[in-house]
Write a structure and sequence with these properties.
This protein is of the alpha+beta class. The chain is 55% helix and 17% strand.
C-alpha cells in the first residue's frame, strides 16, 4: 500500500469516527432538545388555557386568574427547559444547583423586582382593588386593567396605558373610587351677599330633583357652608351611583348655573372694595 493510499484510509477512518462519536450523537440530542422545547412550550400554553378556563368557571376574580396563570406559565417553562437540558446530557441536579446559585445572585441584584413580586402577591391576597376598578395609586389615577407579576397596568380616563410597579402601589395610599356602589358629590356654590339664600337653596333643590340619577336615599343636603370674603357659600351634597359621578356632577353644575341666571341669583367672583383718600386736599 502506498503512502497516499494509507493517508486516505486514515482520513476516512478519522472522518467516520468523528461522525459516529460526535456529530451524529450530538446532532440527534440537539434535535430532540429543540423538539422538547417546542412541544413543551405548546403543551404549556394549552395547560395554561385550560387552567384559566377552570379558574374562571370556579368564579375566581379575573385579576387572580391572570396572576396565577403567569406564575404557572413560568414554572412550566422552567420544567421544559430542564427536560431539554436533560436530553443534552446535562444533569438535572447540576442544572438546579446552577439555577439556584444564579437565582441567588440575580435576586441580590434585582431586589426591587423581588419586592415588586412580593407586593403583587400581597395585592392579590388582600385585594384592595380588582380589575375594572377606578383607583388612585402611586400618584396615578385610572382603571385597573391587569395586575401582573411585577407591575400593574392602569388605563387613564384619556385612554393612556400606565405601568406602575407593584411595590410603589402597595407602599402608597390607595384610593378605590369603585369600592362602593354610591358616591357623594361635594359642591360649593357661592352666591352674592345681596342674593336671597332661601331662593338659591330652592333653585339648587329643583336642579337636584330634576335629575333622576340623583338618589333619594341618602337624602341630598343643601346647607349654608361659610360666609366667605366675597360670597355666601352653600354646600351641595347629593348622592349618586359610582358610575354616574362625573356625568351628574357636570350636568348638575350646568343646571344650577342656568337656574341662577334665570332667577337673578349671582355667582360672584373674588373682588375688593378700594377706597381712595385725597390726603393733599384733606390737609
Amino acid at each position: 500500500m502506498s503512502t497516499d493510499d494509507l493517508g486516505q484510509t486514515l482520513n476516512t477512518l478519522a472522518t467516520t469516527d468523528w461522525l459516529n462519536l460526535y456529530i451524529i450523537p450530538w446532532g440527534t440530542r440537539i434535535v430532540f432538545a429543540l423538539v422538547i422545547l417546542l412541544i413543551g412550550r405548546w403543551i404549556a400554553r394549552r395547560l395554561i388555557d385550560l387552567m384559566k378556563k377552570a379558574m374562571s368557571k370556579a368564579g375566581l376574580d379575573d385579576m387572580l386568574v391572570a396572576f396565577l396563570s403567569n406564575i404557572a406559565h413560568m414554572a412550566l417553562l422552567v420544567v421544559v427547559v430542564l427536560a431539554a437540558l436533560e436530553q443534552l446530557g446535562v444533569s438535572t441536579t447540576s442544572a438546579l444547583a446552577v439555577f439556584g446559585a444564579a437565582g441567588l445572585a440575580i435576586g441580590l441584584a434585582l431586589q426591587g423586582s423581588l419586592s415588586n413580586f412580593a407586593a403583587g402577591s400581597m395585592l392579590i391576597f388582600f385585594r384592595p382593588f380588582k380589575t375594572g376598578d377606578f383607583v388612585e395609586a402611586a400618584g396615578v389615577t385610572g382603571v385597573v386593567e391587569e395586575i401582573r407579576i411585577f407591575n400593574t397596568l392602569l388605563r387613564t380616563p384619556d385612554n393612556r396605558e400606565i405601568i406602575v410597579p407593584n411595590g410603589q402601589i402597595y407602599e402608597a395610599t390607595i384610593v378605590n373610587y369603585s369600592a362602593r356602589d354610591t358616591r357623594r358629590i361635594d359642591l360649593v356654590i357661592g352666591i352674592g351677599y345681596d342674593d336671597d339664600i332661601r331662593l338659591a337653596k330652592e333653585l339648587i333643590n329643583r336642579a337636584i330633583t330634576q335629575d333622576p340619577r340623583i338618589l333619594k336615599e341618602p337624602e341630598p343636603a343643601v346647607m349654608l357652608l361659610d360666609l366667605a370674603e366675597s360670597s355666601v357659600d352653600l354646600a351641595v351634597r347629593p348622592w349618586v351611583g359610582s358610575g354616574d359621578y362625573w356625568d351628574v356632577r357636570a350636568d348638575l353644575l350646568e343646571s344650577i348655573k342656568a337656574l341662577f341666571d334665570a332667577n337673578g341669583i349671582s355667582i360672584p367672583y373674588p373682588q375688593r372694595d378700594v377706597h381712595l383718600h385725597d390726603t393733599a386736599r384733606a390737609a
